[in-house]
Amino acid sequence: MISQHPDHGSKPYWQKSAFIKTGDEIKECFLSFSELETSEYKWDWEGKYVDESVIEKLLSEHHDYFKKNPLGKEKFLTFRLPNPKVETEFRLGRAFMGILGASGLAKKIGFHSPPLFEVILPMTESAEEMIAIQEAFKEIASLKHVLYDFGEESLKHIEIIPLFEQVTTIIKSDSILEKYLELHQKKFHFKPVYLRPYLARSDPALNSGLVPTVLAIKIGLSHYIEFEKKHNIKLYPIIGSASLPFRGGLTPDTVEQFCREYSGIKTVLIQSAFRYDYEKKSVIKAIKKLETILPQGLATIISIQEEKAIKKLITVFEKHYRDTVEQIAPIINKVASYLPKRRERVLHIGLFGYSRGVGKVQLPRAIGFTGALYSLGIPPEIIGTGRGIKYAIENNQMKLLEKYYLNIKDDLRKAGRFVQKDELNKLAKKSPAWKDILKDIEEIEKYLEEKLEPKTKEEKEHFEIVKKLHKKMDSGKIFHIYLNHLAILRKSLG
């Protein structure tokens, strides 16, 4: 599934600017289908501007292509809705009307209908929220007026893809799905044929850290195996993967390792960095590989005893991570606010949006958070992780951790190549939080039996530029001139 997450460092191969305007996303969507050969594109209404005439434009501008590759049958466009909990509900109504209008239009011009039939609900925390969206859609679809009638044959029911965004929600997501099945049967008098639970990868990492997120997803996938057997319903889990290890570690170069790590996942997100920071040929090849490997993967069942021990590990790692992030939030926010913009987002203030937070502090969204820390030479993967590993080793839990986080060493090595210890040592003189991060590095180096330092030419250049950035920042001068180049060097904005 192609997503519009704006995490690319370089320019898209199809235009001269790294900034993608809302009006360019129709072209991007078509090229994702026709050139990159992906099967699904997420049309994102959450926290960003959207072109509401997407279906009319796709079908009119690329009539022959979609006659051969019908939307809703061969190719899929999936709306991520604005969540009415945090965004104004009129945007939800507009998304619904777009879906219904698309259904009528496709039928009228002889295309497969409905072209859109699933929606993603972000920040899902209960079955009731899912049902409420479906009930609202049903009511709007039933509107009748002499000037406006969708007709008896129009789309009346929308499928919900619940997006679970917190470690605790991911772990208990099977019980939310269980309640959803029960309510669905009561309200609509039939059982869904399948479900696509969507496990976030970036937001839980931002809130709880790297290791807790990976472990929570493993527990979630294990629960889904039991769920399928119990309810005789197929689950096709989705994961919100991105390029840097903190946000998933999926790049054209890591497809096999990623698929092994998250075996049981059936759909992966292909974010902007994956598509635009690597050679187009290798991107197409990697997508084909994903299409081959993903359907075959099976999740691992975790025993009750192991699950209990994993939950304890999650608590330990999460505490170390959160305690530190709360203390260093001001500098993260400062750098994130200067990161180059890649798409048109609505402002996360007042009527139009929201921000993220850990404990008592507000933080940028996950791309800004990750990009800021990498630009400071402190990859977020290491925060809390070294101290967590120390605990795991001392309590004989390291084998369990490595059993369920297969790529832990690789991920820490990759992130560790962007550590800037010289600058971290200076920061450690000012605050105990930075000393804790130094402790994390020390423990990770002991565990890996190697130093965290740059290896390649690009990583060494990144190291030197981070030093310059700190120098400018310390003297109160403009430091953000370096941020774009750093993003290109690490092949991801954040």
Characterization of this structure:
- The protein is α/β, with parallel strands linked by helices and 494 residues long.
- The chain has 2 domains: 22-296, TIM Barrel (Alpha-Beta Barrel), CATH 3.20.20.60; 304-490, no CATH class.
- Helices cover 52% and strands 8% of the residues.
- The chain has 21 helices and 13 strands.
- It has a 7-stranded parallel β-sheet with strand order 1-2-3-6-8-10-11.
- β4 (144-145) and β5 form a beta hairpin.
- α20 (457-474) runs antiparallel to α21 (483-490).
- It is globular, with a radius of gyration of 23 Å.
- The protein starts with 24 loop residues before the first helix and ends with a helix.
- Residues 347-354 have low confidence and may be disordered.
Provide a brief overview of the structure.
This protein has helices spanning 25-34, 54-61, 63-68, 89-108, 127-141, 167-171, 173-188, 202-208, 210-231, 255-261, 272-276, 280-293, 304-336, 366-375, 385-394, 398-404, 408-416, 421-428, 432-448, 457-474, 483-490, and strands at 40-44, 76-80, 118-121, 144-145, 148-149, 159-164, 194-195, 198-199, 234-235, 238-239, 267-268, 356-358, 361-363. It has 494 residues and is of the alpha/beta class.
